[in-house]
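Quick note —
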Amino acid sequence: MQFPFSILVENDFDAVGFGTNAVDYLIRVPEYPAFASKIELREYSIQAGGEVASSMLGLSRLGMKTAYIGRFGDDGAGEIGLNSLAAEGVDIASSEVVPGALTQIAFIVIDEKSGERTVIWQRDTKLSYSAAEAPLSAAKQGRVLHLTPHDTDACIAMAEAAREAGVIVSADVDNIFKGIEDLLPLVDVCIVSAEFPSKLFGTMENDQALRELSSRFGCPITGLTLGDAGSLLFCGGELIRTPGFEVPGGCADTTGAGDAFRTGFLFGMLSGRSVEESAAAANGVAALNCRGVGARTTLPTLSELDQLLRQT
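Predicted structure written out below.
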């Protein structure tokens, strides 16, 4: 199936990201600790992460030209975050360092047995964008604008500017934010976590939830990430089920798997692949990212992704 919209052939960037960045404190433990207990950690590391920042870096690693728009604190964590993007060719000219602000952080506890993780995070309110502060000219510079709706009013302004310029709008949604129902009608590719529909609509089956998202908000493509079970998409009145891949060498950490899925899907879309092929690429990138600890450590190169897809 072909994508149900026209994608710009070229622009300043293949993808522009607007949304979250973070620095993650990753802690591996033998098993998830019981309440009010003590446990010795196996190892820990400090790495850059954040949904949109990681997706832009992942696309850059796959050969796409990307830019990231976001705010960092003027602290050591902010320096880590900015340097991590610049080192891999992500344009950060429209990003900002906010004096006196603390960069978003997350403490992530990883169960060594399964690779599943628990995230404890904090975002300084000084990092937020208002609608008036949204850099609208940057929203028009990509073939796709990919965002997270933490600063919903600013996202609405960015999405409106993007659509006026013929730019496809993609959203990574996993929670309810004030104004989300005003943003979603502006989204072309709406891929959400498996838990999101029940927060918005109440309990319903996955296929029904995707149909409801499409019907209520008009998103041409809606999708659910389903962990190791793969993904479910709804497009053109059809459901597309795509199985997940086994993680080569076993799953070390699921941190950033959802961000990696969106990376692979946008890569497929931007490189002219079909919806089904893009879903396979998305699941492939997610699986490969779970090989190592951290949101970005093992995001694949194009040759690694192609090898996995060929083997399958």
